[in-house]
Specification:
Structural class: mainly beta
Largest sheet: 4 strands, mixed
Distance between the termini: 33 Å
Helix content: under 10%
């Protein structure tokens, strides 16, 4: 079974959005409070990713996130609204801003282009009362933001007659008045975390608690409470870094599809162990998956997620009555007979993904460049494989191999704290199998199409050479075998 697979790349646009006060001018707001359920209720913080815009916001435990529709917010601003009075000076091509500072202290003034870029910003200590500033801005449309202790104002400014080539802010005057200047939207102290978005954006909320991670995807529709269900899956933090993927020409038993190239990866977390029968049964039962393994509400309703184990390979799951249960004695052995579709559905269920092929090899190597993360050889004391066939002259003290899966974590972990990256079961990756690129890549996701999905790592029935860090194998995504399982990654 020597076949291949590849990756699908998803590019996120990195756009800086204007953080706007929902109390000042937004006509649509979306408030979320966070709770936790499942194995823990301790949530330190929640990171919110705008997958469409590529922006993030971090919400402290117990706080509330308020989303502001950016398009509506900008369009709702008028030149003299939001507590800022603006006058344009045709002779000089500048604009004068006057606003009321409720308290003495530092105030931050900034101008943003409508695409979210911060054009100019300045922090100045101001006294309570009316304060005037002069803005020099190239011709164009801008959002002006002024904030200080106890106040926050926003307004839209169209600079039409300016001859300025560079943006600037200059303090002009201060008037110590008793009553505030006319204000249409004086902001009260903000106690929520604000994040701008455009209607229809996809958001991902990720909460952490110790070694546990829970993620909830969402598209804003209204106020709601997000419940995080933490899965009991210990993970290891895999640091960002650059490595050489593939194998050198001198590596014994290498294949031509292992051509080396440089890969740079962002940080991620990976499950320390292969997903077990017990963990997978909990998912199947939670989703009421029947004996046919079909998940009608899933992304692949016509594809079986798993098949029951039996006969001489009975170390997987059984369907008994209306429940999936592990074969006796194999509760903590890796799940088997799971298709690529079944592995993907489980990863989605717990808020993760299958690893890309690059993530898998990087995590497996854990900084090594040798055929295995254990060095030049892989012994019977280091992994569950067919011990009768060691690698390149290596020797084993025992040559009669178990002939089945073993409990995850039976052997020592690699330098990243990951167990069974060599042997036990092959592990599904997210990629289609395809030819490696020749140029350096950052966070590669492989080929965009294909017939087979990548599997990595070798299994209990593999010779040692097929357990090498660089060895590439693949299988039809609908295949299910007693020697294929998977693990899950979380980003970040």
């Amino acid at each position: 079974m020597k076949t291949k697979t590849t990756f699908i790349r998803s590019a996120l646009a990195a756009v800086l959005l204007v953080l706007a006060s929902t109390q000042s001018y937004a006509t649509f707001s979306y408030t979320i409070s966070f709770t936790a359920s499942g194995t823990t209720t301790s949530v330190g913080s929640v990171e919110v990713k705008n997958l469409t815009k590529g922006t993030t916001a971090t919400v402290a435990s117990g706080n509330t996130l308020t989303l502001t529709d950016q398009t509506t917010a900008v369009d709702a601003l008028n030149a003299n609204d939001g507590g800022i009075r603006i006058s344009q000076n045709a002779n000089t091509g500048t604009s004068t801003l006057t606003f009321y500072a409720t308290q003495s202290g530092n105030a931050h003034m900034a101008a943003y282009a409508l695409d979210g870029r911060k054009v100019v910003g300045q922090t100045t200590r101001l006294e309570a009362g009316d304060n005037s500033l002069e803005l020099s801005l190239p011709a164009g449309m801008y959002v002006i933001r002024v904030s200080g202790t106890g106040y926050a104002y926003s307004a839209k400014l169209q600079s039409q007659t300016s001859t300025a080539t560079q943006a600037g802010i200059k303090f002009l005057t201060h008037t110590n008045v008793e009553a505030s200047a006319p204000q249409k939207s004086k902001a009260t102290p903000i106690t929520t975390t604000t994040m701008t978005y455009t209607t229809g954006d996809q958001l991902l909320y990720t909460a952490t608690s110790g070694t546990y991670i829970a993620s909830v995807p969402d598209v804003p529709t209204g106020s709601k409470t997000i419940n995080f269900n933490f899965a009991t899956i210990p993970t290891s933090a895999i640091p960002a870094g650059t490595f050489t993927m593939g194998s050198p020409g001198s590596e014994v038993n290498r294949y031509s599809d292992e051509a080396q190239y440089q890969v740079t990866l962002s940080a991620f977390r990976m499950s320390k162990y292969e997903i077990t029968n017990t963990q997978y049964a909990a998912f199947l039962n939670a989703k009421s998956i029947g004996s046919n393994g079909l998940y009608a509400a899933g992304a692949y309703p016509t594809q079986a997620l798993i098949y029951a184990s039996s006969d001489s390979y009975d170390f997987g799951l059984h369907y008994s009555g209306s429940q999936w249960v592990p074969a006796t004695g194999y509760e903590n052995a890796p799940v088997i007979n799971v298709t690529w579709y079944g592995a993907t559905e489980y990863a989605t269920y717990i808020g993760g993904t299958l690893p890309t092929e690059a993530q898998w090899e990087y995590a497996c190597r854990a900084g090594t460049t040798t055929p295995f993360n254990t060095g030049a050889f892989l012994t019977n004391l280091q992994a569950n494989y067919n011990w009768a066939y060691p690698y390149n002259g290596g020797t084993n003290t025992v040559t009669t191999y178990p002939g089945k899966t073993q409990t995850v974590g039976t052997y020592a972990a690699n330098a990243y704290g990951l167990y069974d990256m060599h042997g036990n079961v092959w592990e599904w990756c997210s990629d289609w199998y395809g030819t490696y690129p020749t140029a350096a890549q950052t966070n590669p996701t492989g080929a965009t199409t294909g017939s087979y999905r990548v599997i990595r790592g070798g299994s209990w029935d593999s010779d040692a050479r097929y357990c090498r860090s660089a060895f590439r194998n693949s299988s039809d995504p609908s295949d299910s075998y007693s020697f294929i399982g998977f693990r899950v990654v979380f980003v970040p």
